[in-house]
Amino acid sequence: MNRFVYLDNSATTPVKPQVLDAMLPYLKEEYGNPSSIYKKAAASATAVSQARAQVAKALGAEPSEIFFTACGTEADNWAIKGAAFANQKKGMHIISSQIEHHAVLHSLEYLEKQGFSVTYLPVDKEGKVSPEDLQNAITEETILVTIMMANNEIGTIEPIAELARIAKEKNILFHTDAVQAVGSVPVDVKELGVDMLSLSAHKFGGPKGVGALYIKKGTKIDTFMHGGAQERSRRAGTENVAGLAGLGEAISLATGNLSEKATRIEALRNKLIEGVLARIPDSHVNGSLTDRLPGNANFCFRYIEGEALLLRLDAKGVAASSGSACTSGSLDPSHVLLALGLPHEIAHGSLRLSIGEQNTEEDIDYVLEILPGIVQTLRMMSPLYPGN
Amino acid sequence: MYSEKVMDHFENPRNVGEIKDANAIGQVGNAKCGDIMKIYMKIEDGVIQDCSFKTFGCGAAIATSSMATEMVKGKTVEEARKLTNAAVMEALDGLPPAKVHCSVLAEEAIEAAIEDYYKRNNLTFEPKKKCSGCCGSCDHHHE
Q: What's the ipTM?
């Protein structure tokens, strides 16, 4: 079986050819340091400022509000720790949700060890944070709210504009991890009303190792990397010029034809979800069916375990991911699935298929052809399956 | 991540299913941890004539179940009780550190089936070690 179907676009995406072309000059002849003053370095400096302008345009921000980082995780770390430490005299309480990415959760755990207190808001069955819960969690001590725009596992889109408005009414800073959202759904920092927003290039056809943090003008935040004057002295270190050129090109491409692309991907996603539910008994979809990333499909199949499912899919050429314990590196299944209220044994049997621009109708047909048989084979092996 | 032998036993598991006239059945693990192994044996004159399994779990859990059932088939009950998780791992050309508990579970599942056989035949069973049913690593993360 030579067929290969990549359905893990929430993990990473292939670099687009135009993106690679935009990067190559800065890995070859244009090697100048953007901080140098001679002519040779001008192209590098221009590339960095062009990338900044491209990211700013895509987010509805000013170029001076865009700060480059080495990844989405760094952007999250900086936003959360930087804002917490810079504002700790006002208070030491932070509000987040139970379904955040580990880049956010582990940054918050670190802050808890430093004396901050954190409220992790629960989510409903679809994975949504309730604005009322946020309202009720705010105290005099609250200095920061950080809630993701779209969940990486189940694709649920949070009501960020509404949540941010509640925080802003109390003059509390609002950060959103938009790593999964940018390039998939419209993201405009002014419409959302957020103070900080994290993104990562490799989630939308850019290279790995490049991210950005939007910091609204006037936001009080600590410097993250101390050193030279790069990123207006707030994040020192010689710029990843080729990576930034790639980020700029990728975000322009990804946000350029967003609604057309999203419509096509969503149609594939709906076909996949409907096909799986119709063909596989005792299966269900996790997350919201309406407020959902266009490319995300997340299922639970009862009586089987996710890693075994992934290995069988891989043997047939399908790359996917799971929230099972065996893939999370611990004995507990995904914290996101548990937060939805799923019991452990069902959460162990999850499968995430995330569709990207390169996927076709044939890819979906192929998965619908092989998945029911794989699930059934594993069920026949399972002592939990009542059908045998 | 997995050796070729593990992948072979995962993709082509030996001895899957129930033995209709099994006279020894043992189950270990729990769904919360994500691993359950159930072992069926047909024992005659103290010799394991047939052995099969059903497993809910990851690739390593299925492969270790498959290998363990292969290893005890044809052995006497006493010999089978000497099967260690290390021997199962060795036969599979090793397991990643995070999956060692699967081999422990396989050893315990064989032991649980034999214990069932002893009890059915009113024989005295001297447990070689205590286990609450899970591998015990539920309380902590792998690394």
A: 0.88
Within 13 A of A290's CA, how many CA atoms are on the CB side? Answer: 2
User: Given CB atoms, is A344 within the 8 Å cutoff of chain B?
Assistant: yes
Q: Please name which of B139, B141, B114, B133 lies closest in space to residue B35, comparing C-alpha atoms.
A: B133
DSSP A8: B
Per-residue pLDDT band at A148 (split at 50, 70, 90)? very high
- Taken in order of first residue, the domains within chain A and their CATH numbers are 17-256 (3.40.640.10), 257-381 (3.90.1150.10)
The token pair at A268 is 């594939």
SS (H, E, C) A143-180: EEEECCCECCCCCEECCHHHHHHHHHHCCCEEEEECCC
Cβ pairs A/B, distance under 8 A: 82
Q: Does residue A125 sit at the B interface (CB-CB below 8 Å)? A: no
Measure the CA angle with vertex A68, ends A67 and A74; round to 5°.
Answer: 105
Structural domains present in chain B: 4-121 (3.90.1010.10)
pLDDT tens for residues A304-340?
A: 999 999 999 999 999 999 987 666 556 678 999 999 9
Q: Examine the pLDDT at B140 and tell me if it is beyond 60.
A: no
- Chain A residues within an 8 Å CB radius of B27: 383
Q: What angle do CA A113, A338, A175 make, to 5 degrees?
A: 50
CA distances from A228 to A66, A235, B26, B99 (A): 17, 8, 65, 45
Tokens 């959902």, residue located: A292
By mean pLDDT, which of A293-297, A352-356, B126-130 is the weakest? B126-130
Question: pLDDT tens for residues B73-120?
Answer: 999 999 999 999 999 999 999 999 989 999 999 999 999 999 999 999
How far, in Å, are A123, A199, B142 from residue A332 at the CA level?
A: 19, 28, 10
